[in-house]
Amino acid sequence: VRGGRQKVLVSATLENRKENAYNTSLSLSFSRNLHLASFMPQRDSPVKVECTTPSPHIRLCSVGHPVFRTGAKVTFLL
Questions:
Q1: Which of 16, 23, 74, 78 is the most exposed place for a label (fewest CB within 10 A)?
Q2: Where does the Integrin alpha second immunoglobulin-like domain start and stop, copy by copy (predicted)?
């Protein structure tokens, strides 16, 4: 994206297609020239997601702790 204040909506889905996953986490880092207005799991997701912001350009999320079950998925909107 170039120029003034352009907006982009991104949808990303994390899915467990194999066996149960323990202590699953998602790390998102992005360029300093981007401003992330929001980063959230989709509202109707049954998967527990907790996110932290260790720095302005990094988001760390625990997904389904303690267990991200087989077949579970969560969609993030950013």
A1: 23
A2: 5-76
The model's pTM: 0.77
Tokens of 62: 């625990």
3-state SS of the chain is CCCCCCCCCCEEEEECCCCCEECCEEEEECCCCCCCCCCEECCCCCCCEEEEEEECCEEEEEECCCEECCCCEEEEEC
Place of tokens 């909107």: 77
Confirm if 42 and 77 have CB atoms less than 8 A apart: yes
End-to-end, the C-alpha distance of the chain in Å comes to 15
